[in-house]
Write a structure and sequence with these properties.
This protein is α/β, with parallel strands linked by helices. Helix content is about 20%, strand content about 35%. Strands 1, 4, 5, 7, 8, 10, 12, 14, 16, 18 and 20 form an eleven-stranded mixed β-sheet that branches. Strand 2 and strand 3 form a beta hairpin. Helix 2 crosses helix 5. The protein is globular.
């Protein structure tokens, strides 16, 4: 029996004669989970994931977090909040009793409420999410509604003595001419568990959605996330992802510009350190004319970690006026760290403007030296330069409470690199007594 088959036998429900998602169950049975030969899974260590004995977990098993824990781990942003623990809706931790007019936020397990792009690229883990998942978060926004406060969806993984597998599911439907902000937070306790998350977004004509995806799960976690977006004519999608947690994290975004004049802006920040591995896969497909898309992803890779970015732009035939741009920048802090970046353009039309740029580099030694001569310690100087490198992504977040939460998360994460260890370079820098510039003598 292969590791993939063994995992499916443990996770796919056998206590229900009729799966909630018969199409997904049939697809999963015929195709199974991805393998290392699948191009989009090139940098995801599937062998390591499949070697872990993940088990199904009853809804909300383990110790439930309290509200203070939810606030600390994911922030409190003042609007409606719906909380799931191990894939199950927890009303006591949620705030959806009073919602703005035209907004529905609920937990449902009925597969009929789940929409998906009929031409979406198949994926074994997404099929597993459909078959093995529990409750799902449903956000529906009616036509011509402006939602001022952000809608917050929290998926909390509470580990126990076994390696838990949970399958969060979110569906966001935004009506014609509406405008909203949705925050998704994936958090949890430290411990070995699998979060296999799928978010499906459908944007009607001329609407705007700002969508922030925050992944800060605990040490030992495996996070596999997929966000699938379909945009209709004139719609705007502003999607950002921030990843600091999990031992292994895969964040995939698949955006289809299906109507003329649609606009997509994607940004991402991932900060693997220690032995973490963060993999980002972005696909933007231009199916309609006069659509625009922009991507900006930044990585800071430290210690023995690995960060990767694969960005695909696909422009279909018979489209005109396409404008698409992609930028990936990686900062490598140690010789043992590794960064991969792979732009991938498929342009099947003539009237296009498409650009891509990718850089991998180290901290500016002259800037480090300048800060050291001003009395700044080596570790603080590096932290200052790293925060400046990723600062534009955090500054672009319009929700003040989320921006403050991210700043705190990043500061804590970067400080962790100095807890309990000192690199050879740290020791060398500390031994080098650099005097301020105005006190140094000129030879």
């Amino acid at each position: 029996m292969s590791p993939s088959t063994a995992l499916l036998e443990r996770l796919v429900p056998v206590d229900s004669p009729t799966p909630q998602q018969p199409d997904a169950a049939a697809w999963l049975k015929a195709n199974g989970l991805p393998t290392r030969h699948d191009e989009s899974w090139k940098y995801t260590p599937l062998d390591r994931i499949l070697a872990i004995t993940f088990e199904r977990q009853l809804p909300a098993a383990g110790t439930l977090p309290d509200r203070a824990t939810i606030d600390t781990s994911s922030g409190n942003h003042g609007g409606p909040r719906i909380v799931f623990v191990n894939g199950a809706f927890v009303a006591a931790l949620s705030d959806i009793d009073v919602l703005p007019d035209g907004v529905e936020c609920s937990a449902e397990s009925d597969s009929a409420t789940i929409v998906s792009d009929p031409a979406a690229r198949p994926d074994g883990f997404q099929a597993l999410n459909r078959v093995a998942g529990n409750d799902g978060a449903i956000v529906r926004i009616a036509e011509h509604v402006v939602v001022t406060a952000p809608i917050h969806i929290v998926h909390f993984a509470a580990t126990s003595t076994t390696s838990v597998a949970v399958h969060p599911r979110t569906t966001i439907l935004v009506g014609r001419g509406s405008r909203a902000t949705v925050i998704e937070s994936f958090v949890g306790t430290a411990g070995e568990h699998l979060t296999n998350a799928v978010t499906t977004i459908d944007l009607a004509t001329d609407c705007t959605l700002t969508h922030h995806r925050i992944q800060s799960e605990g040490i030992g976690a495996v996070h596999i996330g997929a966000t699938n977006v379909v945009q209709h004519a004139g719609s705007s999608y502003y999607g950002s992802s921030f990843s600091t947690g999990s031992e292994i994290a895969r964040n995939a975004a698949d955006v289809v510009l299906a109507g003329p004049g649609a606009d997509t802006r994607l940004s991402g920040m991932y900060l693997p350190r220690g032995s973490q591995l963060h993999d980002n896969i972005v696909t933007v497909e231009h199916r309609a004319s006069r659509c625009t898309s922009n991507q900006l992803f930044k990585a800071v890779v430290d210690d023995r970690a690995r960060g990767s970015f694969s960005g695909r732009i696909l422009v279909q035939p018979n489209t005109v006026g396409t404008d698409s741009h992609q930028t990936s920048r990686s900062l490598v802090l140690e010789p043992t760290a590794q960064a991969d970046t792979r732009p991938w353009l498929e342009i099947l039309a003539d009237d296009v403007v498409c650009t891509h740029g990718a850089t991998i580099g180290q901290l500016d030694e002259e800037a480090l030296f300048y800060l050291r001569t001003r009395g700044v310690s080596a570790e603080l100087a590096r932290s200052m330069l790293v925060e400046a490198f990723i600062g534009e992504l955090i500054d672009a977040v319009e929700t003040p409470s989320l921006r403050a939460h991210l700043e705190s998360e990043v500061t804590t994460h970067l400080a962790g690199r100095y807890a309990g260890h000192t690199t050879d370079r740290d020791a060398a820098d500390e031994d080098d007594d650099i005097a301020p510039a105005e006190l140094r003598s000129t030879p």
